[in-house]
């Protein structure tokens, strides 16, 4: 119960701060266990972001993942950092920490990197990948996602 409360408090830490703009993303892709790269699992994820500035976002994430034929609903606190390299294509670093609800519910964290391909001032195509670790099962997963980021 302590782990669940810690994850919920961390995830809602940014809710009390009034946002200057609505920023969100939606991504879809695959997630594979590191030891068996032949079995592809579907993974969908999205975030509501609080823009601290143009390069740094903090927010809440959630989605649906199917890992080894078990469905999970992950909820997390998240951080998105655009690196100041480039103008149209910006490298990004991401991190999530939270809780996965499902048959085998557990804490998880993920760290990743990717590209933020600007379509204009308010939208981007995002391509990312990274590493995800599930606490109870002790398994590491590699994920690859593609999606869209909308800044209003």
Which key terms come to mind for this protein?
152 residues; 64% strand; mainly beta; 8 strands; 1 helix; 8-stranded antiparallel barrel
Sequence-ordered SSE layout with sheet pairings:
Elements: H1 2-11, E1 23-33, E2 41-51, E3 56-67, E4 70-82, E5 89-102, E6 106-118, E7 123-134, E8 140-151
Antiparallel strand pairs: 1-2, 1-8, 2-3, 3-4, 4-5, 5-6, 6-7, 7-8
Secondary-structure element string: HEEEEEEEE
**Class in CATH?**
Mainly Beta
* Helix content bin: under 10%
Approximate shape: globular
Number of strands: 8
What would you report as the Rg, rounded to the nearest angstrom?
15 Å
DSSP helical segment count: 1
Task: Give the mean pLDDT.
Answer: 86
Largest sheet: 8 strands, antiparallel, barrel
Tell me the strand percentage band: over 45%
Q: What strand line-up does the widest sheet have?
A: 1-2-3-4-5-6-7-8
The name CATH uses for the topology is: Porin
Helix/strand/pairing category: mainly beta
Number of domains: 1
How would you sum up this structure, described in words?
The chain is mainly β. The protein has a single domain (2-151), classed as Beta Barrel (Porin), CATH 2.40.160. The protein is built from one helix and eight strands; from the N terminus they run αββββββββ. The protein has an eight-stranded antiparallel barrel with strand order 1-2-3-4-5-6-7-8. The longest helix has 10 residues, at 2-11. It is globular and about 40 Å long. The mean pLDDT is 86.
Short description:
With 152 residues, the chain is mainly beta. It has one domain (2-151): Beta Barrel (Porin).
């Amino acid at each position: 119960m302590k782990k669940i409360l810690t994850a919920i408090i961390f995830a809602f830490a940014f809710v009390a701060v009034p946002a200057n703009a609505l920023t969100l993303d939606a991504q879809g892709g695959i997630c594979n266990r590191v030891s068996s790269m032949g079995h592809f699992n579907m993974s969908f994820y999205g975030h509501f972001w609080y823009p601290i500035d143009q390069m740094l976002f903090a927010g809440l994430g959630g989605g649906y993942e199917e890992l080894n034929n078990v469905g999970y609903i992950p909820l997390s606190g998240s951080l998105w950092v655009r690196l100041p390299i480039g103008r149209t294509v910006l490298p990004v670093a991401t991190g999530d920490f939270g809780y996965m609800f499902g048959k085998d519910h557990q804490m998880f964290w993920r760290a990743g990197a990717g590209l933020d391909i600007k379509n204009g001032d308010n939208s981007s195509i995002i391509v990312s990948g990274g590493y995800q670790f599930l606490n109870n099962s002790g398994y590491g997963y590699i994920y690859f996602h593609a999606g869209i980021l909308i800044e209003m």
